[in-house]
Amino acid sequence: MKKLLVLLSIALLLGANFVSCSKKDAPAVATAEPVKELTHDELVAGAKAEGKVVVYSITSRISSAAESFEKLYGVKVEYSNLKDGELIEKVTKEVGGKIDGADFVISQDSGRVYGQLIATGYLVNYVPQSMVNVIPRQYQDPLIFQMINKVFIFNSEKTQTPVIKNVWEATDPKWKGLIQFKDPNGEGVNMNFLTMITSPEWSAKLEKAYENLYGKKLVLTTKNAGYEWIKLFYANGLVLGNSDTTISENIGIKGQPQTTMGLFVFSKMRFDASKNLALQAITDVEPFSGFLYPAFVHLTANAKHPNAAKLFIEYLLTQEGFAPWAKDVGSYSTNPGIPVNTDDYPLSFWEPRLVPEDPQYLFEHRAEVEEFVNNIAYKK
Predict the structure, then answer these.
(1) Which distant-in-sequence residues (6+ apart) come within 8 Å of 307 by Cβ?
(2) CA-wise closest residue to 42 among 298, 306, 316
(3) Local structure of 159: helix, strand or coil
(4) How far apart are CA 362 and CA 193, in angstroms?
């Protein structure tokens, strides 16, 4: 099995075919040699004997989950909240250098995580035995802990009618300077979205959407309709921000002379009432209303407290463990038994409306899309 891991890793890094972790097909990724599964009681005993667990996470809500886990099991949790790139760099350095660090990680930015951490064997896929028949197969390998969505959201003070029905409308002069989006150079998932729409599947959908809106074929000045949409989206005075929270406030503030719109995390809708904002999401836009991305959970290959890590992973996949995320909209557990916020739609509603991440395509093509985006964003 270890030889197979090495061969698969080399093949991946040389650009061989991988399998997407989209809903349609579960990926076949390299995993560590399986060990004997412990029962829940055995895990608890092992975790208490280890005494603590160390976790790196891209979500700050790990602090609330850690507090609840400590109270329940008496196992100390040391956690660090890191940005995407920081987490990837830290795990690479520590696991690659055989330095003690995290026992497990919650990560996002699937292309980089897949290519730099999973294929290299630095992260190990682990599905708790109690969850094998609970979590749908397509979310198990790599194990997805949470799905998150970003959607088109507009200022609804003047109108509650969706302001666009087709994404090409966002490139129309009437929206010039009125749309905000988090700088994709500051968050990998935003660059992943732009990369995904240049794929054959999504560029074809964009080309069809253009014809449906304008009644004529799209004349390309770039590689395909995905690149063309990015070019026109930026050229239309796109306002780049450094925080989805700030963008949500900029879009939702009342008293604006013109209706504004943004593409940001749906979870910011929770501030609509508390901050007296006017925010409304657009759920039916051709060919997409936004994008969807996963947060993975993995053991590290050199976990010093593996039983405590496994127990915590199991806990995060339960309703109690996922509670810090489930309390708001825009956060979806892959455990179908955990209900979403009453003001939200289930994951099954969002999946056909949003652009998902495909680790293979992202790993192979993100660099060229980054270069394209930077050329148009900073062109003098």
Answers:
(1) 38, 43, 46, 47, 49, 50
(2) 306
(3) coil
(4) 9
Distances, alpha carbon 256 to alpha carbons 177, 245, 246, 378, in Å: 13, 18, 16, 28
**Residue indicated by tokens 């905000």:** 180
Are the C-beta atoms of residues 180 and 239 closer than 8 Å to each other?
yes
Separation between Cα atoms, residue 380 and residue 364, nearest integer Å:
28
Q: What is the pTM of this model?
A: 0.88
Residue 215 φ/ψ, nearest 5 degrees: 70, 25
What is the rounded CA–CA span in Å between residue 288 and residue 273?
Answer: 27
| Phi, psi (degrees; rounded to nearest 5) at 224 | -160, 180
Distance CA 204, CA 195 (A): 14
Task: Tell me what pLDDT residue 36 has.
Answer: 62
Q: Which amino acid is at 380?
A: K
Token representation of residue 265: 């995390």
Classify residue 97 as exposed, middle or buried by CB count within 10 Å of its CB (0-12, 13-18, 19+).
exposed
CA distance 271 to 253: 11
For 331-346, the pLDDT digits (tens) are 999 999 999 999 999 9
Cα gap 117→359, rounded to integer Å = 12
Provide φ and ψ at 305, rounded to 5°.
-130, 65
Q: What is the pairing mode between strands 104-107 and 290-300?
A: antiparallel
300-322 pLDDT, tens digit per residue, is 999 999 999 999 999 999 999 99
Is residue 350 within 8 Å of residue 208, measured between CB atoms? no
Phi–psi pair at 180, nearest 5 degrees: -120, 150
C-alpha–C-alpha distance, residues 98 and 101, integer Å: 9
pLDDT of residue 49: 98
Query: What average pLDDT does this structure show over 364-380?
Result: 91
How many CA atoms within 13 Å lie on the side-chain side of 183?
A: 10
Query: Per-residue confidence at 37, pLDDT binned at 50, 70, 90?
Result: confident
Alpha-helix runs per DSSP H in 317-358: 319-326, 347-350
Look at residue 26 and tell me whether its pLDDT is greater than 50: no
